Structures are given as structure tokens and as C-alpha cells.
What does this fold into?
Amino acid sequence: MLIPDYVEGTFQMSTPSRADAVRNRQLALDAATALLAEPDAALTVEAIAKKAGLGAGTVVRAFGGKEALLDAAVAGLLRPVVARARDLAADDRPDRALRTFLGELMTFQAAHHAAGDNLRGLAAPETTALRGELVAAVETMLTGAQRAGRVRADIPLGTLTAVIGEAAYAVARSGAADHIDAFLTVLLDGLKPST
Amino acid sequence: MLIPDYVEGTFQMSTPSRADAVRNRQLALDAATALLAEPDAALTVEAIAKKAGLGAGTVVRAFGGKEALLDAAVAGLLRPVVARARDLAADDRPDRALRTFLGELMTFQAAHHAAGDNLRGLAAPETTALRGELVAAVETMLTGAQRAGRVRADIPLGTLTAVIGEAAYAVARSGAADHIDAFLTVLLDGLKPST
It folds into this structure.
């Protein structure tokens, strides 16, 4: 009994079945995604492995490293946010769409503190691409609102988008729901063209 | 020659003269203050000691620990900012004073990235007290501007001050001068009472 178990264990460790590999990948991804929603969670390979019920080595093998795993987890969270931004960018009241989108984005950021912090300095190509799509959607909303005479046109679009992004992220991270509301009220009034 | 030198060295290490202690304290403080203005500087005792030309033990002894040293260095930087805020809070155009003060504060924050980051989680009673005075001065400006009908009164003062502080700090840290200007333009317009 002892020897067959050992042999089987060794065999599985060196060449896990395709089904096991897929399952381990999903377990690691789910664990990382769950940790991204925990305030101040340390997203180490060990913490992810513990949450997934896997060994640290298995987690690393499943993704080829922590960077790729975090990139996949954050990208999985961002994909529906990007889809929502694209829908809203097609709204016929772009200033209203902008407020709706920023409110949802900030609520998402407030619930996923760990996402931004843990990706800082890491190579995360999928997340970077999705962030670029988010920025593009916000610029579409801003341009549409400017064309409709509802957002000021005296500040360069890139500066405006960057400043909104920096400020919104900071308020979302440190603030409660009433901070997010107050920020959006002041911001959207401040974005109106001066009369 | 060798023995007297050694004896003198030993004597100085165990009981430094009063003048040496004052000098070492100032050297450590100047080094920490200079490092606070360097982007991404690591404010370790070792880095401060190296910059001061002192031993790490001497730096620790001069202040009783890194926390007290950083508190003293950041407080030294904040003191003139607080004095300026108090002067501006007495201005007869509080909305104009608010813009001037926030602009100067953000320029200060942009030049001292390391100050906020390195104090996070440390006990820094002097800095905390000065920050409280800054917040009080900003609230005086906001209240005065509200009374003069120049700032909206439909958001609680504490919420407004917190949101402005969070957003301004984030923009100052990540932005260039044109980001600071754009932020202040949008913010101050957004703070006007709705007509």
C-alpha cells in the first residue's frame, strides 16, 4: 500500500493531469481574487496558496509566477468594469454617464484596495491594457460632454482625465460612501463650463 | 599614540559631551529632512546615518528612535506651512485664501513625497498635532467662504475638508504643476454655491 501511494504522489507532482492543472489554476485565481477584496490583505504566494488549499509550488507552477497570477486576477475583476464603461460611453447624456461611471468605479475601488497597491511595480500587461481601455472610455464620455456643452473645454483632455483618475482613486480608497458622493458632486459641478 | 586615541574614543562613545549630542541631533535631523525631499528615498536609520556622516547607533541615541526623528523632521517642515495657513485663514477673501493655500500645500507635498509615506503607521505626535492645525485652518477658510456666500454649504464641513485633503494629496503626489492647476480650477469652481 505504501509504495503505490508514494509512486502515485510522485507521478502527480511531476506531471499533474490536465484536469488537475486547470483546477489548480482556477483555485489559485479564485483565492487571489478573494484576497483582492480583503482590506490590507498581503498578496503573497503563501497567502494565496493557503486560501486556495494548495501548496505554494503548485500556485507558482499554475501561473508561472505571482505577477502573472495577480495580473489575471485583477484583469478578471476589471473586465466587467471596462464593459460597463463602454456601455456608458455610448449614453446620449455623457455628463450623466460620467457621474454614474465614476461612482461605480469608486465603489469598486473602495472594495478592492489591495488591487492597486499590489500591482504597483509589477509587470501586469493585461491589467495595463484594461486600464488603458477605461481611460479611453472616460475620455469618450468627457469629449461627448464637452461637445454637448456640459463639460468645460479649457483644460486639456489628458490633464483632466489624469487629475480625475488620481483624485477619484484617492477618495475611493480612503473615503466612505458619503465621501464618494461629496467628491462627485463637487467634481461634476467643477467640470461644468463656466458661464 | 594608539592607546590614548582608543581611550578617548571609548570615553566619547559612552558619554558624549553635551555639545556633541546637540551637534549629532542636528546632523541627524538635517539628514532626515533632506531625505524627505528626495523622491522615493528610503528613510531607514542606516540611510539617515550615512547622509549625516554618523553611526547608526549615534542617530538612534540622538532621538531615542527612528519614529521620534522622523516626527521631528516632518514637524520642522510642516511648521511654516501651518503658520502660512493661519495667516491665510485671516484673509478677508477666504475663497481666494483657500486656493492660494491649497496651491502652496500641494507644491509642498509634491516636493516631499517621502513625508507622508514614511510616517504611515508610526507614532508621530508632533506631526499629528500640526496636521490637526492645518485641517482647522482649512475649515476656518471654508467656513468664512461659506459665510461670504462663496463656497457651497450643502455638504458637511468635515466631509468637504476630508475629501479636499485626500484628493489634493493624491494629485500633488502624482501630478505635475499643470495637474495641480487643473485640480484647483475644477475644485474651486465645484465648491461655488450652485446658482
Summary: The interface with chain A takes residues 152, 154-156, 159-160, 162-163, 166-167, 169-171, 174-175, 178-179, 182-183, 185-192, 194 of chain B (CB under 8 Å). Confidence is low (pLDDT under 50) at residues 1-12 of chain B. Chain B has two domains: 1-64, 74-195.
